[in-house]
Design goal:
41 strands; alpha/beta; 23% helix
Length: 662
């Protein structure tokens, strides 16, 4: 006989009977109506067919607790008592989710839970809750050693959480508000048996104090100081009934909610500070109309790098040069949220706000390194500069769109927006025809002003102040003078990207194995591509490994490092200017180029050892002087052939061409 589920609260059994073939028996199941717990004994009463026993099965490992049922008499409910493991038992550590089954004649049928509201209580050593799943089946949640969240509030400076401890000593813990990007911690303050933690909404990032934490979903945990064990506080049922709850601050919007899939942990969701009048499609459509009606009569520059994720690249070099010239232009920066640092002398504009739209349409100059928004129509008097964000190597523009089968409507939009560019910054002679052919119609290509100047962002790699930047960045990253810093910066793989915006990270390189093989005198700087960053990809961590995916400026990392592990990324053009050794980890070279061909030959643009394994990388890194000497002539040929304009004066040439005396 086999037991099946026939829907919430019903059972189905299949049996084979002599002379009758298969029979399916469907019956109403049993329903739990009341529950209580005392000294770790859970007592439940229910109606319906009385099972022989009730079994609690823990989801994560199948551990079971079983109790015999006291049968009902007439209309009286049946009762079962289940003894939970003793306090401190291995089986009860942490948070557990249990499902309840009625066992009869060997058949296991899920128990229903009748009340519409959950039952929650704290036994002296056990916090527990009984509730119904979406299917109406009984679910028991238990927490041993728990802190119950009684209240949560927010101010401009911090999130304040009041907790009631059960089975723990609050003084042994530190509170942690954590996402992939930030780990903010706080010491509990004891208050009449409860304790309060104030978790900062501003923190130090990359050596810069008082930075707004980035947007994302943060999880509240308690971390035991001695052991590092993590404990997830549980919002009380009363508090959960107030969720979700939102608060609009000057620098962010904070939303208190339950964790993913209704799990009982506090999620603090941080998003950009858009007002009610700026949120939603209707409001955004209205604001876009405002931008498109702009007259570009404000004496200002509107900088946008990628999609507001950073304030670096060629635009940053132009910003700094304008400041050096004491410009009277107002310098605006498009930023996704207030966590994006704005260069000194700049004004940050959060994307999609009313001011962001108004300044975009009103600026005399706009500098971008990707296409401007699809909906944006540039005023005739506005000057738009396209600087791009890397030396061209991969198939791009129209041939790439054709390979990806981008719709004709979308291609038309790309070409229409390209035609609005007044200036195109090209880094080198070889690059200019590829850029014109890739992003313009023949007619539009004749009208754009090409500034063949080198890349402004690379001037710093050749400047005298590079030595001071190297010292400062290594100090921030905790790299000692005697340590060799190795920058690992692979590009994204198109075959690991589903939307041409995000991608999983490749795993050809094992940073932990490399750190162990190289020893304590080496540090690995692991830098994910922007596509990886948008996918919130985490990296391996360790004493000799630094995750620098979200470090603001790649040029700083080029200066701080002593060697680089690269592949097909255009970063190899920039890094070559440092004359530091490069290793090319390319085990998927054929696969990569079958998906994303190069527009020029690969080997001449990758002057370094080509390897396929982490072991080979370690071998080359152990003898960097030999690697440098072997490939120095090829590096110089590479620079002379493809980077002839890189002399440290690219920014001056671009600013002279676009802004003149401004």
């Amino acid at each position: 006989m086999h037991a099946l589920s026939a829907g919430p609260g019903r059972s189905a059994r299949i049996s084979a009977e002599r002379g009758s073939g298969l029979r399916i028996h469907v019956a109403d199941g049993s329903t739990v109506e009341t529950a209580s717990m005392y000294e770790r004994v859970l007592t439940m009463s229910g109606r319906g067919p009385a099972p022989e026993t009730v079994v609690l099965t823990r989801d994560r490992d199948g551990f079971c607790v079983e109790g015999a049922v006291d049968p009902s008499t007439g209309d009286e409910p049946w009762t079962v008592r289940l003894s939970m493991p003793a306090a401190g038992a291995r089986e009860m550590k942490g948070h557990s989710r249990w499902r309840a089954f009625a066992r009869t004649e060997g058949a296991m049928v899920p128990l229903r839970y009748g009340p519409t509201d959950a039952v929650e209580s704290v036994d002296p050593t056990l916090h527990w809750e009984l509730r119904a799943s979406r299917q109406g089946e009984l679910v028991l949640l238990t927490w041993e050693r728990v802190a119950q969240i009684i209240d949560v509030t927010v101010s401009d400076a911090h999130v304040s959480v009041l907790l009631s401890p059960h089975g723990i000593d609050a003084s042994d813990y530190r509170a942690q508000l954590k996402s992939n990007l930030v780990d903010a911690r706080s010491t509990p303050e004891v208050q009449e048996g409860n304790f309060r933690v104030r978790l900062p909404l501003r923190t130090e990032r990359w050596g810069v104090p008082d930075q707004v934490i980035p947007c994302g979903v943060y999880r509240l945990r308690l971390v035991h100081e001695a052991t590092g064990a993590k404990l997830t506080p549980v919002p009380s049922q009363t508090l959960r009934e107030t969720f979700p709850r939102e608060h609009l601050l000057d620098h962010m919007r904070v939303r208190f909610q339950l964790g993913a899939q209704g799990d009982h942990w506090l999620a603090v969701a941080v998003s950009p500070p858009l007002s009610p009048e700026e949120r939603g499609q209707r409001n955004q459509h209205r604001l876009r109309a405002t931008a498109n009606a702009g007259s570009a009569d404000e004496h200002s520059v509107f900088f946008r790098t990628l999609y507001g994720e950073a304030t670096n690249d060629n635009a940053r070099a132009i910003h700094d040069e304008l400041r050096r010239r004491n410009t009277d232009l107002t310098l605006y920066w498009s930023i996704q949220d207030r966590s994006v640092p704005v260069p000194e002398g700049g004004i940050g504009l959060v994307e999609n706000t009313a001011e962001w739209h108004a300044r975009l349409g009103g600026a005399s100059y706009v500098v971008v390194n990707v296409h401007q928004p699809m909906w944006y129509v540039k005023p005739k008097s506005q000057v738009m500069v396209q600087s791009f964000h890397g030396y061209p190597y991969k198939e791009m523009g129209q041939s790439w769109w054709a390979r990806r089968r981008v719709s004709a409507t979308h291609v038309h939009s790309y070409l229409e927006r390209s035609a609005a560019w007044d200036y195109l910054v090209s880094p080198a002679r070889y690059a200019t025809p590829h850029l014109l052919r890739g992003f313009f119609t023949p007619q539009a290509a004749q009208q754009v002003n090409v500034i063949e100047a080198g890349y402004p962002r690379n001037d710093i790699l050749l400047a005298a102040e590079g030595a001071e930047i190297r010292r400062r960045v290594r100090e921030v990253l905790g790299i000692a003078d005697h340590q060799t810093a190795v920058l690992y910066a692979p590009t994204f793989r198109d075959y690991l990207s589903s939307d041409d915006m995000t991608a999983k990270r490749v795993d050809f390189f094992d940073p932990a194995a490399a750190a162990e093989g190289l020893g304590p005198d080496y540090v690995i700087l692991q830098r994910g591509h922007a596509f990886n960053a948008r996918a919130n990809v985490t990296t391996v961590r360790g004493p000799q490994i630094r995750d620098v995916t979200y470090y603001p400026d790649i040029a700083d990392l080029c200066l701080a490092s002593d060697a680089a592990i690269l592949d097909y990324s255009s970063l190899r053009f920039d890094y070559a200017l440092t004359r530091k050794p490069m290793i090319f980890l390319v085990p998927d070279k054929d696969t990569y180029h079958s998906q994303r061909p190069g527009i020029i030959a690969y080997e001449p643009t990758a002057p370094g050892a080509h390897v396929t394994t982490t072991r080979e990388v370690i071998k080359r890194l152990k003898n960097l002087p030999a690697l440098t000497n072997r490939f120095r002539p090829r590096v110089e040929t590479f620079i002379a052939t493809y980077m002839e304009k890189e002399d440290g004066q690219a920014t001056v040439r671009v600013v002279d061409a676009v802004f003149g005396s401004d």
